């Protein structure tokens, strides 16, 4: 299944986000060997050069490492993963808060809504 | 690369031309049998009823017609072979197949050489097959009471035992044979190149009906060739001093004929080279595949 | 960066119509590049000139710094927008043909791809459907280890499943030393695989940029940009 991309951001950035997410949520386990650039490119239906660029970016972020013999693996450095998770979470929270503020909600109202949302999610979990 | 081109041109041509040659041989055998039957029926004393006489007449008429038709078809095969060779050239160079031909990493010269050599090869094969077929026909299909027509064999024998030795007194036989073979091959090459050239020019001048254009071009070029040939040969015969030459001995006639024939070889060679070079230049400098 | 293809003042005239008008072009090695423009903008003409099937009216074309000829044809793998394999050839004949003439033809790869397509080796071209024939041609073209691939409308007029097959075949066989020039008017479908693109409008290159750059600076996809630029 080809990956879905939005039209307003460079595709390599979207690939970085997607792979980062998979590492952070454990779909790609720590120390796991990644498929080759070509295979990843075919799966995502993107240009191998673009995939290459995204992987280099992820390498710079410390989320994947390249060994001469084994190819690319997901990092085994837990601190790198948790650092990335912090950065991502902070960014999402900040965006969320800014959007809420733009809607005109006070901090208290936002917190109430979050609690309500958490409750609903719990119900979903029980129902499903 | 020329070898590979020839391999694939040969393969493409053989697909139609090989069955055609088999057909000629087969047709020739059938015509031989039918003619032999007709002759024997006509000759045999037929003691039978009126009805069977009519049947005999019918069989003879049908056999005779069939063998004449087959004979015409065999002669036409020379033409058909040439048409098939030219059609292969047309398809490779001017149809969608040109997309394959002209993106190959080979030189334009080699493309032309391959088409020329394979075309010549098949024309020669066709000539041999037709000759063999006619030989079979004349030996086995033209007698009344023996299996083999001894007259034909005798005629061949005469040719080798009487005529050739007689001719050898005036001309060198091996030399004449070599000359005939060489001039015939050069003439064949020039003829094929002339047709290829006509097809290429036809493709240049017309966007549609390019086969028609090629035929028109061929006729036009043929006129040009006719003019060039007559001018060239008049010059040559003039140069040989034909006006004040007195050919009074058979030796002199022989020598004169050999020389003139040789000059035809030179003419065909010149025309062939001209067609080849102009064709190549057009393909190189003005190829515009649709 | 060394370029694989360069054109200077390239012009092609068909009678009164100007199919290409003073095209100056320099394409880098190792990129997948879209040649994008509406029908009749000169895409096919440009590719055919580079492939050596058309003679330009004016200007020069250099492939790896060499003029179009025997040398350049040995490093170019060209997929025309029509079926060009002779009817009577079998699949095996076609493989043999390519293997004979192209030193860079990878027979094993071609056979693998054909077996995935379920095309029997003894079938003649005329026995194959038009779609299968087109896929067969793509397989032959992509089985070469060429330096420059010219693909003319490879996804024009095919169903979505075939389109995916074609794009997979292109991506799966791409080696990052080579450059692929894909002409198409279906931008949305190829956008994800393009490094760079050229907009061709009435025989003139109006834009040459990277796809990332368009998204980064303009915040829009190539498809959206194309619709703006070529609005009727």
Please provide a written account of the structure.
- The complex is a heterotrimer of chains A (128), B (290) and C (232).
- Chain A is mainly α and 128 residues long.
- In chain A, 64% of the residues lie in helices and 6% in strands.
- Chain A has helices at 11-24, 37-44, 48-60, 78-103, 107-127, and strands at 64-67, 71-74.
- In chain A, helix 1 (11-24) crosses helix 3 and helix 2 (37-44) packs across helix 3 (48-60).
- In chain B, 25% of the residues are buried.
- In chain B, helix 1 (2-43) runs parallel beside helix 4 (108-140), helix 2 (50-94) packs antiparallel against helix 4 (108-140) and helix 6 (173-205) packs parallel to helix 8 (250-285).
- Chain C has 232 residues and is an alpha/beta fold.
- Chain C has a domain at 1-75 and 148-154 and 181-232: 3-Layer(aba) Sandwich (Rossmann fold), CATH 3.40.50.
- Helix content of chain C is 35%, strand content 28%.
- Chain C contains nine helices and ten strands.
- The longest helix of chain C is centred in the C-terminal third of the chain and has 14 residues, at 160-173.
- Chain B binds chain C through residues 1, 4, 7-8, 11-12, 15, 91, 96-100, 102-107, 285-289, and chain C through 48, 51-55, 70-71, 73-74, 76, 78, 80, 82-86, 88, 93, 97, 100-102.
CATH H-level superfamily of the largest domain in chain A: Winged helix-like DNA-binding domain superfamily/Winged helix DNA-binding domain
Shape by Cα distribution of chain A: elongated
H/E series of chain A, N to C?
HHHEEHH
* SSE class of chain C: alpha/beta
Name of the level-1 CATH class of the largest domain in chain A: Mainly Alpha
Radius of gyration of chain A from CA coordinates: 18 Å
- Helical content of chain C, roughly? 25-40%
What is the CATH superfamily label of the domain at 1-75 and 148-154 and 181-232 in chain C? P-loop containing nucleotide triphosphate hydrolases
Q: Roughly how many Å apart are the termini of chain C?
A: 37 Å
What is the residue-averaged pLDDT of chain C?
91
How is the CATH topology of the largest domain in chain A named? Arc Repressor Mutant, subunit A
Question: What's the short version?
Answer:
With 128 residues, chain A is mainly α. Chain A has helices at 11-24, 37-44, 48-60, 78-103, 107-127, and strands at 64-67, 71-74.
